[in-house]
Fold each of these.
Amino acid sequence: MASIYIISDKGKLGKKDETFVFSQPDGSATILFPFKTEILFLVGNVSISGDALRMLSKYKIPVVFLSSNGKFNSKLVYSDSKNVFLRQKQYLTLSDPEKSCAIARSIVEGKLKNQISFMQRIKRKQLQENDQLEENINRIKNLLAKVPQAQNTESLRGIEGMAAKKYFEVFAFNINCKYAVFKTRSKNPPESNVNAVLSFLYTLLAYRVEAAVESQGLDTMVGNLHLCDYGRASLVFDLVEEFRTPIADAVCCALFNFGTLKEVDFEEMDFEKSSEDFPLEKDGEDVPEGKVPASAKKGILLTKDGIKKVIKAFEDKLNTQITYDDEKISYQKIIINQVKHYKRVISGEELAYRSFYFK
């Protein structure tokens, strides 16, 4: 099973026999097999025939619609899982402050450990002492020490937020590229090229985690760390946290450091003069209507070619194998295994949730 990306502004997805056919205006066509497709990303103005839509529904293939510059538009989903007993256990866990907070603690602990590991890698690459880097590593270590004593998710979110601030203060030290710009983390819309890549990668990562969560019959809306709110996939945002640094952040830096992305792979967009909406990042944070500052009306976005490069690097990373539970498996499989592990904890088959930690 594979994730399929179709990037086009004029193509059409149709059906022939039991296959999908993606046709371009120049007459070229690509055959896609539904039984080999795990999730379909349509980037740009791709049209879908009625027959193709019915076959997507038949095979229950999730479809994510993104604009030509990577902004999320919509998603095609199907009926919810019939496992009402599993969902009941999710709700019972949510109403059990002790158990829910224990899961949230592990998620925050895993995220902070991954940030520290990433920052220590940066430190080893430095040719001379970097006082700010050393100080921020120690700050996050101190925050990590506070996680076991946190008595509620509000405190944990505060710790996570402070750690993220210190982490991104030194993130640019890991990017050796003259045209790369990163002063601070910005989104909705991203205000620099590095932020544009991070936002797109975080969005792609969220949908991969979401697909894994849905495949296990879990309710995506019932999380433990992120607040539950109308329409918010809190569980997805919870389980994304431990993978942000080892997958998305690592890919972002590599794309700039290895020269894969060029200056021409980015464009500035004035949203006051454009029909495009703000590219709101799928990260669990809502932007209240009318609260976007005037200074954020201009954003830096990836071009179509830039999107293709980021997608390829992201998929290559997901297929990279590392040691996990004493065996060599891909990051994609690790994501699925972590969701299965979470499911077993919710079901009472395992006592405690353990976040993924990379060294």
Amino acid sequence: MAFAVYTHDRGVLKLTAQLYPLRPDESREVRLELKRGEQWVEAAKVNISLPGWSAHYRLENWDNSQDVPYRVRHGADAKFEGRIRKDPIDKEEIVVANMSCNSSRTTGLRPEIIDNLKA
């Protein structure tokens, strides 16, 4: 699993997971699990979309009033974990940032890049 991104609006959660290319004998199924209390519960299962090695989920009747831990799993060991944040409707200002340290064109040390992002 490489990463996942999500959005939610008007009761619909959309989540996309990105996988690395798989070997021919590996499963083409990806599971979305949500943490409910102390238990992980499978919310959806989809097949990988090709080309692109991605998995796309759409969950209706999403309750966006609370944070929900999630994980996307492939096979027995591969997973990406995150948190689906509640709708920040009560905030006057929303701060958004994006950072990647994977590009050979990104100059500077990582602590310097992070400090600049925070500033």
Amino acid sequence: MKAFTIKKNDADQRLDRFVAKSVPSLPSSLLQKYIRLKRIKVNGKGSKRDYRMVEGDLVEMYINDEFFEQPSEENAYLRVEKPGVDIIYEDENILLADKRPGLVVHPDENEKQNTLITHIQSYLYQKREWRPREENSFTPALCNRIDRNTGGIVICAKNAEALRIMNQKIKDREMEKYYLCIVHGKMTPAEGKLEGFIFKDEVKKQVYVTQKPQPGAKTAVTLYKTLKTNGKLSLLECELITGRTHQIRAMFASAGHPLLGDGKYGNQAKDKPYGRKYQALYSYRLKFAFTTDAGALEYLNGMEFRAPKVDFEDMYF
């Protein structure tokens, strides 16, 4: 609880507007709810939201301490009133979310609040599974990431042990990750492997594929299988053997079969008849395939999960 004595400059102000300015991290819906529930009192009593305060009034706010912190990237979850998380699987250690295209996974220079991790943290906070005030440093964290305009399965660790184990399993490639994508043209052969070296240009935020090693380039391997084709477009299932930035997008573009709708590596002229504004790429299937001990997460070994719906799977065929 915190108490505020109304001074001259705050007088004649509506109660709800004073609270909004004093506690900027408190969502407006909660503010109104707390006034109704009399968790925000004036002179020891419940009050109307439109009460005009008088100099000397005592405003008491019985709300969680987290809300009194100044808004920042670290507590952005407090501003998410209704978390939008499509949960594929959840237990006491991990959560698998189906990220929709267009949503960034982490805050960046353009988006601080409406991100996947912020929504997940808000979801866990609101159901009181995660209590920031009782933690010294841990916050729920993502173990993998996918591009803004790519949809699909993202793993979130709900405790420090799960985060440590999952990060190691990803590093050791002890899980199988499958994507669906649509490429221009028909793959020859229909099933095969793309190999090369990927170099990342940090300035342009873009990667390049070469067939020969070069300083800073990393090995990249993608397996693919054609599921459907009409000659002009092909639906592929891809398995990532390595997990490089923009790997699928860059490798198929380099092979002469850019992804449909890919504004960075694609072909706008070929995309135009289809009207797609972002790449047809979805991380749709994940299998835990541990080859070494997974400790507290051993029960996940062999489990496989799928996204319930991929928007483009049956759209063009």
Amino acid sequence: MKRKNLAPKITAALFLLLLAYLTADNLGILMSTAKSYLHREISFAGVMRQITEGYQEDLKQKEPLITLNGAYMRLTGARVSNGIVRMKNGMLTEESASADPSYAAGQITGLYQYLRDKDTPFLFVETPRKPDLSGSLMPEGTESYCHENADGLLALLEAKGVPTLDLRPELAGSAEALEQYFYRTDHHWNDEGAFLAFQRIMERLQAQFLEDTILSGITQRENWEKHTLPSYFLGSHGRRVGIGFAGVEDFFYLTPKFETRMSCSVPSDGIYREGSFAQAALNMERIAGKPDYYNSSPYDVHTGENYDHVQFRCETAPSPRKILMIQDSFGLPLEGYLATAFREVETLDLRYLKDPTAVEVIDQFRPNMVIVLYNPFVMEGQCLQFGLDDK
């Protein structure tokens, strides 16, 4: 019986020695953890959690450790690893706590009222996020309140008369929708999801500007070409739990089949690109060469990454309207699509915008429409600091 009880300890010790062999620089950390386990101070599951969470800042060459830990968690049937949840359909997401939406509602309503006084149309767009709206894909014992939080925010905005567009029912209403419109290992929608959002937003803009031709061939999916890079992507959730837990997936992006002449400028970073959509709106360096699963995201092919203030100009756009969109990272693929339809499109990411404020940019740019596009996790913080307190 005593020999049988030694088996888990021996297995754990061998596993830790293997990790040490793969990353000799971490030998001190790993042996310290092994000692704690052998003295029954922590469980083997605690060993793995301590390595991937507690020591993540100090570990060198940690990718093999994350990969091996993910494989171990997958083999043991675990549904949660390093804060990431593997849903019943195999897609990754994360838990979320209940949040009070009143602060976000107050800030967004304030911006709407500020623009209303200037006769500038406004639209708040709620983007989806995993899991599905019903929450039926979440494993037992896990919690996600992101959709309840978003419902509360939308209810408060609508009570104040703020125009809203809720994309969640169509893009996250079922497991099938999530699998079609989201990456399996990332929290972002894929380009099919972003393009559907583009179509729905353009429909609202057409209703706003009845005299314009907003809906055109640009908004028809068959006029865009899909480019796929097989097994090229490990998303933000996948990087936290490792390839062994989640696997990798294909990455794809869209380019127009029609002619485009445009430019993309990021003044704060000294970036300027011009030419076709692929030359201006995409940064192809982000998907050049072999995939770097843990250190680079091909999602950043859209514009290049999250920037404070991006300016698009498009000579071939059918509409002369000026659009300004305040966004989180879900807006990256969407901003390029909008830029093909309007002569001037500017976007702001308030996490990085320091000076001027959002309302100062609006006053200078004088757009025909302002869109705020946020996912359900945006309930507080810098994303909601529009600069209204200075007015």
